[in-house]
Design a protein that fits this description.
Blueprint: E1 2-10, E2 13-24, E3 29-40, H1 41-46, H2 52-71, E4 81-83, H3 87-95, H4 98-108, H5 115-128, H6 133-140, H7 152-164, H8 166-180, E5 187-196, E6 219-226, E7 232-239, H9 245-258, E8 266-269, H10 276-284, E9 288-293, H11 300-307, E10 314-317, E11 323-340, E12 343-357, H12 359-381, E13 396-399, E14 405-410, H13 412-421, E15 424-429, H14 436-444, H15 447-459, H16 470-494, H17 501-510, E16 512-515, E17 520-522, H18 528-537, E18 545-546, H19 548-555
Parallel strand pairs: 5-8, 8-9
Antiparallel strand pairs: 1-2, 2-3, 4-16, 5-6, 6-7, 9-15, 10-11, 11-12, 12-15, 13-14, 16-17, 17-18
Helix pairs in contact: 3-16, 5-16, 7-16, 8-16, 9-10, 12-13
InterPro entries: IS1634_transpos, RNaseH-like_sf, Transposase_11
Protein name: IS1634 family transposase
Pfam families: DDE_Tnp_1 (PF01609)
């Protein structure tokens, strides 16, 4: 549709009119009709308008501009972007039939919303764009495919409900994962971390304790259990001021009970969870253990064995002949002191102990020690107060030979001993028939737990937490845990660990489309991963234009 100025010459006069051109459905072609009659040029000149044609041409131009502006596409209040990168996780949830079991909660509770829709939306939103729950609801969820049918208040209510009994939801996922992908508990990996809250006052759940980030804020601790394939199978949340050591026992005991696991499992954890109670617990339950132990805390007799440079040492080198580490081992009965019924007793366990020496670790440790000693020397020279030394005080003598208070001096003996032990690590296990190299490799798979924590803290922005109620906080960490679980299943069970977590998460967050007039535009940056995944799935993941049908095809993909 458009307007033009029509000039008609009749009886020596020029008559003007504004004519509208439009499409006629009846004629199936263009047609014209008079929009406004304007009389003659001569009449308008008599009224004082010198150039009537130019005058009314401006009016026509204004009408055409108005049409042009009304037809131009305008930005809307909602983003035209849509996230697509979470589609593999839609398929995983469908394959494990999670909806069927979450729907039972809808039957037994008077929810005015679909709990599975809320749960899955929160997981997908956390994967593609982690942020506060307010922004998640108002900005991220609207950019997921398909409409949702819950309000912001219902989101918070549903989150608190899930957090109140988060163990049941983990149990559902474990049971279904066991049916589809198997859970291998021949070895279990366990470690703890904590998450800070930017609040001044503690409560019963958020308590001040040793923080991984060395912050003074109240924290909540999280224990994470992985199976032999490094896939999460258990989570325990507890106040930040409680010890981590009993949590290993609680989580493993609950997991074995809920999943009817009766076979032997080997509990693998770092030196922070190595205590007599945990070792005794493993033995009592017919399980095994693999812990590391600080060489510095060993009795003098065992330290001599560690440092003894004899023929027992064996070397492991890479293809280029570079030494990776060397090791030696022994099997013997070792004493442990435990309190039973208020009485201290010594019990003996037969163990295999493997001591390793890593030259790279030694170099790193020596550098760290030298930096700490340098700081301690500076404090000595400046005659700093004892309280100012903190952890550096272990390198300083504050008393003389008679035990009397004296001027601070560097303890050269302690420094020499620490430098001598740099690069050594001791692994202890109940599995006496296990090869030393297998013990080493099994223990060093603990880095997968650290990576899982890093995914939670970095890729999924699990911290800082902006929620206040305990059950809502637990619900938040449940969502983070389930997001990590799905990523791990995708990485290990679907992609066979051929791609790193960073490659996968980059694809999940960046695979987006923008809705055009008739098609979607793929605004994703090309990568090796998306090309390989396109070959694997036979989906049009790298197409610049995507139709509605192709987008539906992507979300209907069965993994």
């Amino acid at each position: 549709m458009a307007y033009f100025l029509k000039k008609t010459h009749r009886n020596g006069r020029t008559y003007l009119s504004i004519v509208e051109s439009y499409y006629s459905p009846q004629k199936r072609c263009g047609a014209h009709r008079t929009f406004k009659s304007l009389a003659s040029v001569e009449s308008w000149k008599a009224k004082g308008i010198d150039d009537p044609i130019a005058h009314f041409q401006k009016e026509v131009n204004a009408l055409n501009d108005e049409i042009s502006n009304s037809q131009a596409l305008k930005i809307s209040e909602s983003s035209p972007e849509l996230y697509l990168g979470y589609f593999p996780f839609v398929s995983l949830l469908n394959k494990m039939n999670i909806k069927k079991f979450v729907d039972y909660f809808n039957i037994s509770n008077s929810f005015e919303f679909d709990l599975y829709e809320l749960l899955s939306s929160l997981i997908f939103a956390r994967l593609v764009n982690p942020c506060s729950k307010y922004r998640t609801f108002h900005e991220v969820i609207p950019q997921l495919r398909g409409a949702t049918h819950f309000s912001y208040n219902q989101l918070l209510d549903g989150l608190a409900f899930m957090g109140n009994d988060y163990g049941k939801f983990i149990e559902i996922f474990n049971e279904q994962m066991k049916k589809v992908y198997n859970i291998n508990t021949s070895r279990t990996y366990f470690d703890c971390t904590n998450f800070y809250f930017e609040i001044d006052k503690e409560d019963n759940f958020r308590r001040k304790g040793p923080s991984k980030e060395n912050r003074k804020d109240p924290i909540v601790s999280l224990g994470l259990l992985l199976d032999a394939n490094q896939i999460p199978i258990g989570m325990k949340l507890f106040p930040g001021n409680e010890s981590e050591k009993p949590v290993l026992r609680d989580v493993i005991q609950a997991l074995k009970k809920k999943n009817q696991i009766s076979g032997k499992t080997i509990h693998v954890a770092d030196k922070g969870l190595n205590c007599t109670q945990n070792i005794a617990f493993s033995k009592e339950n017919g399980d095994g253990y693999l812990f590391s132990k600080s060489v510095k805390t060993l009795p003098e007799k065992e330290k001599i064995w560690v440092l003894l440079n004899n023929e027992d040492w064996k070397e492991i080198k890479n293809d280029n002949g570079t030494l990776l580490y060397r090791y030696k081992s022994c099997i013997d009965k070792f004493p442990y002191h435990i309190e039973i019924d208020g009485k201290k007793k010594t019990i003996y366990f037969t163990e295999k102990r493997v001591v390793t020496y890593n030259p790279k670790l030694a170099s790193k440790k020596r550098y760290e020690i030298s930096k700490q000693v340098e700081k301690a020397r500076s404090l000595c020279y400046s005659q700093a107060k004892r309280a100012e030394y903190g952890d550096l005080g272990k390198y300083v003598n504050f008393t003389n030979e008679n035990g009397e208070k004296a001027k601070a001096t560097i303890n050269e003996d302690i420094i020499e001993k620490e430098l001598e032990l740099a690069g050594y690590n001791l692994l202890i296990t109940s599995e006496t028939n296990m090869k030393s190299t297998d013990i080493y490799n099994t223990y060093h798979n603990l880095w997968r737990i650290e990576e899982s924590f890093r995914i939670m803290k970095s890729d999924l922005d699990a911290r800082p937490v902006f929620l206040q109620k305990e059950n809502s906080i637990k619900g938040h960490f449940l969502i983070c845990y389930l997001a990590v679980l799905l990523e791990r299943i995708f990485q290990f069970k679907i992609l066979n660990n051929k791609y790193s977590t960073q490659e996968i998460m980059k694809f999940v967050k960046s695979f987006k489309i923008v809705k055009g007039e008739s098609k979607y535009i793929n605004v994703t940056t090309s990568s090796k991963f998306i090309k390989d995944f396109e070959q694997m799935t036979k989906l049009p993941l790298t197409n610049y234009y995507l139709t509605e049908r192709q987008v539906k095809q992507i979300f209907r993909y069965k993994i």
